[in-house]
Structures are given as structure tokens and as C-alpha cells.
Amino acid sequence: MPDNPDIRALRSLLFVPGSRADMIAKVGRSGPDGVVLDLEDAVAAADKDTARDTVVEALDTLELPASTLVLVRVNVPGSPWFADDVAAVAATRAAGVVLPKLERTDQLADLQRLFVAHGRDAADPAVVVAGLETALGVADSRELLAAGAAMGVIAAYFGAEDYIADMGGRRTAEGTEVLYARSRVALAARLAGLAALDQVVVAVHDDAAFLADAEQARALGYPGKICLHPEQVALANRVFTPSAEEIAHARAVLAASVDGVGLLNGEMIDDVHVRMARATLARAGEPTPS
Which of 8, 121, 136, 200 is the most exposed place for a label (fewest CB within 10 A)? Predict the structure, then answer.
């Protein structure tokens, strides 16, 4: 499977309430790879219209590095605010949207049609990060993301809180209740060649909990994580960026395998180790020999 630059780019995706102009103005200070101005869960129903206006106004003056992906999380398709949210975003410099609770491909088609209706070039679809956070969305994640890759979707996130609520389950510290769904989303994104963003850690000041959760996400194959607080951004960037030791080991693996199967520190090195080494260097942004 070819490397996807978007997979390497989204180590941290920071969400900020769309109703908080003061927080939006400071959203780039922590150095996230992407920011999301949230009109959905972070905004009460009575404040949706005002928050939309706040986001549009903030996007006119928001200063971020050119490499930072800027998105708006719109409300759920079919909600009273969805069409107005998309129309408003289409007129801004945001790259696109976060689409929550994706369950059907026609929701993606409707989204892109709305963007075109409000001035977006049909040949340049809006960027979409898809939320897989319901029982149906997770169950159909492979089909949704395979189709979504041709409909503007560059990434998907697993929303554990909404998923377990939809299942009628209960969140625990161990997280075994969402392990299957969490793994399924990572697998579906990988097969579609898309980025995958791991679940939130709602204890925003518990660094140890965030680091442990992020390390598990990386072990499952996630290349990035959703952040709810600026303090979590540096932690995510640390976990999902290969360390100096990992980079050195990857280089050594490639050197040991230059003539085929080799030995490194007494251990056999074969093709799977070479592929893992190449992936490590790719995540670090380093070129690898052919």
C-alpha cells in the first residue's frame, strides 16, 4: 500500500468550541497538525446559529501556519443546522469539514453537492474527516471509507463516547468495551489508504492517561489522535512522531538488509522488518532508499 502523506501529517487534531472566539484565536499556539472549530457537540442547541457566525468571523482573521489543516465540524446530516453549516463553511477559507456520525455514503454525496451549490469547484471536493461513532458507522466502516476515499474523505476518527452510548454500554478506564470498534476503524482506514484519528481522552489534564491511551492507539495502528485541550497536542505529537532511537533502529534495519535477509544484534531481519523500518522513516519525514 503506498504511503499517504495525509496519514503522516495528522498526529494531532485539536477541537475547539465554535462558540468561543477567545479560544479560537489561540488555537494555533500549541502547534497542532490540524484544528477543528466545532459546531456540533461543543455547542448547545440554543447557541448553534450564533456559534456559526462566530466561526465564520474567526476564520477571516485566524493566523496559522500554512501546513495546519483547518476544518469545521458541522452538525449531523439531517439536523436543522446541517445545510446552513455547510453553506457557511463553503464561503470561508476552511479546507472542509468534519462530518460527525457518518453512516451512509449518500451523506457524503449530499455534503459535496451542498459545497458545489455554494461555490465550491466540483473538480475540487471539500476535505472531509469522517466521524465513525455509531454502531452502524463502525459496523460499515470498511465500505464507508472505501467509498469515501473518492468523495473527499482524507481521514476518519473513532468516537468512543458516542459509540458506547449508541451501544447502550458503559465506558470504563480499561476501555475493553471499545477495543473491537477502535481496532475496526483503524483497520478500515488503513485499507482505504486514509488517516485514522483515535478516540478522545476526556480527562484533559491527566497527561499520564492521555499518554497511555495514545501509546495503545499507536500500537493498534493509529497515526494520530483527537485532542480536546492544547496541553494534549504536544503529547500526541510526541507519541506519534518516531523517536531518535526508533529512527536509528530503522536505519540500522535497512542497512542490515541491504543484501536481503540479514542479522541485527543477533536477530534475523527479513522483509516485514524492512517494511516497518520504511514506515518509521516515512512517519519521520525521512527519505528511504529504494
Answer: 121
Residue 284, exposed/middle/buried by CB under 10 A (0-12, 13-18, 19+)?
Answer: middle
Q: Which of 5-9, 217-221, 251-255 has the lowest mean pLDDT?
A: 5-9
Nearest to 195 by CA among 225, 145, 155: 155
Instruction: Phi first, then psi: give them for residue 158, nearest 5 degrees.
Output: -95, 120
**What's the CA angle centered on 223, arms 265 and 130, to 5 degrees?**
160
On the 0-12 / 13-18 / 19+ scale of CB atoms within 10 A, 64 is middle
Q: Which residue has the cell 469522517?
A: 130
**Alpha carbon distance 161, 72 (integer Å):** 20
Name the grid cell of 170: 458503559
Predicted pLDDT at 12: 97
Q: Identify the three-state secondary structure at position 22.
A: helix
For residue 82, pLDDT over 50 is answered with: yes
Residue 229: pLDDT over 60: yes
Consecutive H or E run containing 237: helix 230-239
pLDDT for position 91: 92
Q: What DSSP state is assigned to residue 46? A: G
Say if residue 14 is exposed, middle or buried (CB neighbours under 10 Å; 0-12, 13-18, 19+). buried
Question: pLDDT class for 246, splitting at 50, 70, 90?
Answer: confident
Give yes or no for a contact between 76 and 112, defined as CB atoms under 8 angstroms apart.
no
Pick from 28, 29, 53: nearest CA to 43: 53
Residue 13 near residue 222 (C-beta atoms within 8 A)? no
User: Do residues 149 and 108 lie in contact, with contact meaning Cβ atoms separated by under 8 Å?
Assistant: no
